[in-house]
Amino acid sequence: MASTINSRKAKHIIYYVVIVLICALFLVPIYMALITSLKARADINLLTSWKFPTNPTGIGFKHAILKLAPYLKNSFVLTITATVISALFGAINGYIFSKNKFKGSEMIFTLMLFGMFIPYQIILIPLFDTLRRLNMVGLSGLILAHVVYGIPIVTLLFRNFYDQIPNSILESGRIDGASYFTIFVRLILPLSIPSFVVVGIWQFTQIWNEFLWAICLTSQESNPITVGLSQLAGGQAVAWNDSMAGAIISAIPVLCIYIFLGKYFIQGLLAGSVKE
Amino acid sequence: MGKKNSKETLYSVLILLPSIILIAVFVYGFIGTTIYSSMTDWKGMSVDPIKNFIGLDNYKSLFTSFINKGFRQDLVNTVTYTIFLLAGTLIFGLLLAILLDRSVKKEGIYRTIFLYPMALSFIVSGTVWRWLLAPSGGLNAIPTWFGNSQGTFQWISSKKQIWQFNWQNIFKVLALVIAVVFIIFLINSIINENKKATKRNSIVVAILLIFAFIIQPLLPPAIATEELHGFNLATIGILLAGIWQYSGYAMALYLAGLRGLSASIKESAKLDGASEFTYYTKIAIPNLKPITMSAVVIMAHISLKLFDLIYAMAGTDNAFTGHPSIRMYTTTFRANKLALGSAMAVILFICAAMFIIPYMIHSHKERLQ
């Protein structure tokens, strides 16, 4: 009896050791980024690369902030605008696909969803060409791209959410004589706040992190943060302390969202795959 | 009542109309434009571009001409990126999910740690991993902890290539790769005693093998000169970063699936005296099949989007970590060969469509039920 308890205990301990080790593995990149960002450039070398800085300095962060500030501003403008517009599209589309189905609406929905699975290279050249002709190369073009190609995922997220609202609530509204739009505004929208949070967080993270359009559809003065970081950290002679500080700065907004609103982030993450 | 419904349908269509038009133009219209451009000799953006229709010449050039040898290696890289990213994230993710499935204390913290890389952009993680994998970076220092000399493996810039094959035999290689997939299906169908599937799979395997070993040697080689391609060791660095970033995602998918299995299934398995190992291998994992399917589609899709990660870790000019998306970018936006870039985009699109269209048809049918 005692031996089984002991072996169970041993199993338990091994189990936690394994989990903690894996956690450490996952955290290594953060650790390395942090300690390297606090070192002076001359102190970075192979032998001490894992060690804490002996003379921590903020010089890397100072360089990175000076360099990245304009890109950060662009990213905030881009991300917030595009997120708000696409969430509105999603809410109204989702309402129709979930609560006002008509003949052919499922087909339209499926054809719409296709847009979120394509590799964006296939539309990149005509997109660039069109924006160039419309004189929209820059932030406005990038916002347009994120709104348009965001339609499928936001519609899907809202639709899945509205599918969970029982139809009886709408029926009671209809009996009271509420019209099509009144039902949406008075009944559906107030219930949609959690899904606005999920969609908002999802779109914010996606747009903040996007790179392909950012580098192809904007010019120097309208580049968002991902392009700024790739320029700061690219090339051959890299100042690793600056680039690690830059990586941390670019990750802070999305990491904050993840840490404080992780529940909603994961809902968005799973919505496209483990639904229905 | 009927009148009211038709009025509401009209409203619905009107509200959807902006989205429908945008998607029709920006998705379907642009796909059409790119396909058309890929069959022209379009070079250089101008107000009045010159586009002469040249049929499939760009594709022929990509698959056979000497100057586009690099693109063919990129395609091989795409296959290896996809296979290893899929295998790495799914296996590791499943293990993590099983670890967390047994109601651990403070599970939330572990889950948060496993999943945080998903919140980061490929540019951020690529920047950090580039440092970890630099010749003077972190990973190569680890052997010194144990008194050995520092590691010398060039994670991202190695020029070594293994598992080489000759592009002249590409059809044979393709047939054999597909045969391996069907042999796995065949074994699966034999285990499940599904006679119909067994018959079908063995016929497919037989045809592929006959093609590979009997018919293919009779055909002329695919290209004129011998050309070796294979698995570039430099891609291991990119794969490590990719697996680190996405296995948490696979874990989240699987964990949701494991939690979705009803408690009664688990209880009855326990009552039957099934060990934990049998529970997972015999009951849980087979039940997770739909999730594995979604995960395969998602990961395959991500492997086609490795553009950002490769750009951040290796830049656009590293031939050994190349990917069609990177070459499409340099061909289009640096060399201004828009038609050739379009052809590359179409090839990428076809690769993605092979996964996506069956998946979409499947989920469309499910929604209709």
Query: Could you tell me how far the N terminus lies from the C terminus of chain B, measured between alpha carbons in angstroms?
Result: 26 Å
Main beta-sheet strand count, sense and barrel state of chain B? 2 strands, antiparallel
Question: Structural class per helix/strand content of chain A?
Answer: mainly alpha
Strand content of chain B: under 5%
The portion of residues forming beta strands of chain A comes to under 5%
Structural class of chain B: mainly alpha
Number of domains of chain A: 2
User: Which oligomeric form is depicted?
Assistant: heterodimer
Poorly predicted ranges of chain B (pLDDT <50, ≥5 residues)?
none
Radius of gyration of chain A: 24 Å
Label the CATH architecture of the largest domain in chain A.
Orthogonal Bundle
* Envelope shape of chain A: flat
Major β-sheet profile of chain A: none
Topology pattern of chain A, helix = H, strand = E: HHHHHHHHHHH
Q: In CATH, what is the homologous superfamily of the largest domain in chain A?
A: MetI-like
List the keywords.
heterodimer; A: 276 residues; mainly alpha; MetI-like fold; B: 369 residues; two-stranded antiparallel sheet; 15 helices; 3% strand; globular
List the helices and strands and how they pair.
The complex is a heterodimer of chains A (276) and B (369).
Chain A: H1 2-37, H2 59-99, H3 105-117, H4 121-133, H5 139-163, H6 167-175, H7 180-191, H8 193-209, H9 212-217, H10 225-233, H11 240-271
Helix pairs in contact in A: 1-11, 2-5, 2-8, 2-10, 2-11, 3-5, 5-8, 8-11, 10-11
Chain B: H1 2-37, H2 57-64, H3 69-101, H4 107-115, H5 122-132, H6 142-145, E1 161-166, H7 170-191, H8 195-215, E2 228-232, H9 235-260, H10 263-271, H11 276-287, H12 289-303, H13 307-314, H14 324-334, H15 338-368
Antiparallel strand pairs in B: 1-2
